[in-house]
Amino acid sequence: MYAIINTFPLKQKARLTDNETIRNFQTLLKKIKETWESVYIDKDTNHMFNSFLCTFLNTFQANFPVKHNSLKDKNDWITHGKKISCKHKRGLNAFNTNSIDPKAKVHYIKYSKMLRKVITEVKKPHYSRLIGKKIITK
User: Is 63 exposed, middle or buried (0-12, 13-18, 19+ CB in 10 A)?
Assistant: First the structure.
């Protein structure tokens, strides 16, 4: 079981917490009596708290180290064919910016509309599945 600490776009920090690490943590807290005695010796409550917190955090971090997990972009709906189609659309757009041919512009507009429809139809089931709803249809 992992306890999630912080999530970033492509990195995730988590601490490994299972029954064995929890037992090790509890036994280590019981074994370090000399450090607990230093907590109770001091008369200043702020110093006592800081000493306790330092001891506790050192033990905690030793038993539950941070693991860095990389998160990959999970867009399953983007296939190799769709990438090629988008690349072709960009090429058509570059051609149209320098062209005055109206047929080329009409072709680019039709291709863009067709690609947009295809991408929208493929995205619907993907994101519906992620949300946990039924597939959205018209």
Answer: buried
